[in-house]
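Message: Just now I want nothing more than another pair of eyes on a protein record. I am handing you a single protein, as its sequence and its fold in token form. As I understand it, each token names a local backbone shape. Take your time, and here it is.
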Amino acid sequence: MGDIQDISGQRDILSADIDTGDTRDLAKKAAVILKKGEGRTLKAGGFWVYDNEIAEKKGDAADGDILSVLDFDGYFLGRGFYNSRSKIRVRLLSRSEEETISNVNLKKRVRTAWEYRKHVIDTSSCRVIFGEADFLPGLTVDKYEDVLVVESLALGIDRLKEVVLKALVEVLAEDGIRIRGIYERSDAKVREKEGLPRAKGFLSAPFDTDVPITENGIHYLVDVKDGQKTGFFLDQKRNRMAVRPLCKDADVLDCFTHTGSFGLNAAAGGARHVLSVDASETAIARAGENAARNGFSGQVEYQVADVFALLPALEKEGRQFDVVILDPPAFTKSRSSVKAASRGYREINLRGMRLTKSGGYLATCSCSHFMTPELFEKAVREAARDAHVRLRQVECRTQAPDHPVLWGSSESAYLKFYTFQLFRD
């Protein structure tokens, strides 16, 4: 694992002279030719071309450049970023042979992404760029009030991120939103598969990286420098609201609480008592601060513990809860570990069900792309069978709409969220 590079001070995008109105075509006169019979995912609406699907490359294009993708018979399929060092050899940008890939075109995509968010979500803090689903593959940008946090995971988009970010700052300014700072969190190990170093740091003048936000009326302090991912899990915004009606006058167990968001929404919903648990001392400390910030310290109790070890211990003590919330981290990030992940989801749901009172409620989710809805539902059904309980589904939900799912592009769909009422015979 390589060291994480501190890129602070290398470039201040807010003051950089970047021409987002440049109309020059960024694509090279080069192409990759697919093998006969390959490209099925691409033709079905996907964005990726894998190394083993390509017969040859023609023309002068270096890693990170934009080139064309042609079928075995020369039929034009699209243009995208090329990278010979990645198994994902091409990440598609456009399917139109007439469309020019330019700075102006990129700004149009940014504006379209922002206009979409304005229609579907509270934009005070939200995801404004979501990779392939916003036709900017490999790039994520989260807005926390007046701060942007960016994650770049692919070589091609990494070279254009300054243009995209400057365009975003300009588009937001049109609505009177002044961005005071940009921080990069491209510290995921997956960047190494693209031949990129892991990096984090300021892309603007330095600012306080503890950023106050308000979501669903609850106040948080988000650590954009060292928090998980970009600092906060915005994708659960609507799901956190969904647990509130279940929690009135309830005794609630909130597992994998991170910085406390589900537990605080339970408290806001009128919970009598919430026990929020996480293995991270840092996360629990921040969750406690967030509880105090909202006046919930008397309702929420925090405990640093391994959830897999704690739940059997609570069961042995005879504890029962009106509501159990399970929001674990992804148990799998590859197809090769899906079987082990299924066992993990089955185990954690089994333990959660045993701790839920008959007539009580279970909220459970999976944020792993590789854990399909079918596999997750199977794990939950098996857990219910082993716990000797019946489940009545209240809701089935997915990620918040600022994390849109683009049909035909399965990589944009990942979050599964269910609430059940539980009964014992």
In short: The domain at 233-424 is CATH 3.40.50.150 (Rossmann fold).
